[in-house]
């Protein structure tokens, strides 16, 4: 079991615990940080049949009064309509300012529940129990919550920090390969940004035996960056490595290509583009691309540089004419580069050169 203590931008601290058996002991874990209260456990239709009873039982044994709300699995549940139903469920359950929402699921449940907890009664406390690798290594750190609007992903949201995050690695046993690969893309990204030892697990090791270490290393890195730059003015932009092409790829595929898979292709694109620009050695780029492949992720981009650049420019909020892209210099070190939006097509085209 590993415990990280995180400090929020407002100076409060909370634990992120990672290990085996945490679902069974969640009642005792929460009893250590809060008095008994009402708890609304929010989950989805895939996760609830697997883990909801276990969590409910553990919380009840520790003296919490539990209620549950299950939404359909999938990104569609990150909607204003489902958010509205969840807020009504909080009210129906008579949750007060001293009560607690628990997000049991992947990034969809974390984002939705965090948002609901952040605005219900102008903010009640919430806890994250991430059950996907992506939620554990990425979505549950940083306090961002959101739902999607018809006009785009994550357009409505707020910052709301949890009072605890509990990653039970046992839950990853039931996670489909495709979802494991989605999380791997973000963990590999963290490795390229800052952590050669994390990258090495994916390059040479057996990640399935190292989830605890993968999550802990990712949490340490992401939480450090988020603490340095809570409002995404500077260094937090590093987390966007591979994401400018990835967002364009997701959009062009009409979201048929999942975020993690698009990030994998995006990482391959920025690696190739960095070699072409003399920033990264070609053997380091080959290592990045082979490691992505080894993790069951794609490196081939089915779209043209021109189409991606058009979509990326549309995607860019505000009237900015510049964009900051992150480029790898070596495994464990990247740089931020500001360029005019008009240069994106040539960057993407460098990144597509020689793709097999
Ligand atoms: N807040 C942030 O900082 C942040 C960061 C990255 C991503 N996100 C968001 O996270 C979401 C993606 O997260 P995700 O990939 O976890 O998606 P998800 O929550 O949809 O989970 C993926 C699938 O796995 C299923 N599942 C979850 N846990 C399982 C388990 N243990 N066993 C079997 N099946 C399981 C889910 O039901 C779902 O079908 C996106 O909406 C994205 O915008 C947020
Ligand atoms: Zn991402």
Short description:
The protein has 13 helices and eleven strands. By secondary structure, the chain is α/β, with parallel strands linked by helices. The model has no long low-confidence stretch (mean pLDDT 96).
Task: List key phrases describing it.
7-stranded mixed beta sheet; 356 residues; globular; binds zinc ion; Rossmann fold; two-stranded antiparallel sheet; alpha/beta; 13 helices; binds nicotinamide-adenine-dinucleotide; Dehydroquinate synthase-like, alpha domain
Percent range for helical residues? 40-55%
CATH level 4 superfamily of the largest domain: Dehydroquinate synthase-like - alpha domain
Mean pLDDT over the residues: 96
The figure for the number of domains is: 2
Quaternary structure of the protein: single chain
Query: Outline, from the CA principal axes?
Result: globular
**Cofactors, ions, other ligands:** nicotinamide-adenine-dinucleotide, zinc ion
- DSSP E strands, number: 11
Main pleated sheet: 7 strands, mixed
Distance between the termini: 41 Å
Radius of gyration (Å) = 20 Å
> Structural class, from helix and strand content?
alpha/beta
Question: Please, could you describe this protein's structure?
Answer:
By secondary structure, the chain is of the alpha/beta class. It has 2 domains: 173 residues, Rossmann fold, CATH 3.40.50; 176 residues, Up-down Bundle (Dehydroquinate synthase-like, alpha domain), CATH 1.20.1090. Helix content is 45%, strand content 21%. The protein has a 7-stranded mixed beta sheet, with helices on both faces. Strands 7-8 form a two-stranded antiparallel sheet. Strands 10-11 form a two-stranded antiparallel sheet. Strand 1 and strand 2 form a beta hairpin. Helix 5 runs parallel beside helix 8. The N and C termini lie far apart (41 Å). Bound molecules: nicotinamide-adenine-dinucleotide (NAD) and zinc ion (ZN). Nicotinamide-adenine-dinucleotide (NAD) binds next to helix 2, helix 4, helix 5 and helix 6.
């Amino acid at each position: 079991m590993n415990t990280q203590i995180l400090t929020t931008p407002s100076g409060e601290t909370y634990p992120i615990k990672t290990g085996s058996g945490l679902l069974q002991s969640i009642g005792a874990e929460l009893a250590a940080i809060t008095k008994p209260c009402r708890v609304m456990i929010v989950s989805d239709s895939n996760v609830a049949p697997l883990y909801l009873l276990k969590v409910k039982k553990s919380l009840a044994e520790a003296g919490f009064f539990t209620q549950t709300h299950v939404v359909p699995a999938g990104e569609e549940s990150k909607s204003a309509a489902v958010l509205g139903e969840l807020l009504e469920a909080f009210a129906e359950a008579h949750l007060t300012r001293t009560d607690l929402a628990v997000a049991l699921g992947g990034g969809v449940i974390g984002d939705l529940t965090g948002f609901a907890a952040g605005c219900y009664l102008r903010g009640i406390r919430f806890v994250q129990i991430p059950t996907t690798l992506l939620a554990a290594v990425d979505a549950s750190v940083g306090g961002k919550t959101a739902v999607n609007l018809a006009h785009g992903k994550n357009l409505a949201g707020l910052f709301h920090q949890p009072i605890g995050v509990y990653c039970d690695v046992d839950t990853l046993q039931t996670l489909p390969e495709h979802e494991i690969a989605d999380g791997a893309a973000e963990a590999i990204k963290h490795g390229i940004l800052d952590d050669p030892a994390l990258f090495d697990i994916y390059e040479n090791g057996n990640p399935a035996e190292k989830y605890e270490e993968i999550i802990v290393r990712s949490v340490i890195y992401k939480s450090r960056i988020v603490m340095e730059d809570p409002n995404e003015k500077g260094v937090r932009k590093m987390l966007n490595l591979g994401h400018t092409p990835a967002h364009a790829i997701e959009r062009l595929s009409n979201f048929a290509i999942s975020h993690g898979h698009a990030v994998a292709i995006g990482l391959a694109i920025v690696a190739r583009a960095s070699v072409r620009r003399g920033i990264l050695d070609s053997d380091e780029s080959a290592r990045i691309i082979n490691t992505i492949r080894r993790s069951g992720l794609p490196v081939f981009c089915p779209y043209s540089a021109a189409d991606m650049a058009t979509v990326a420019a549309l995607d860019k909020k505000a009237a900015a004419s510049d964009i900051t892209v992150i480029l790898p210099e070596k495994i464990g070190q990247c740089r931020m580069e500001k360029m005019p939006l008009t240069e994106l097509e040539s960057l993407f085209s460098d990144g597509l050169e020689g793709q097999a």
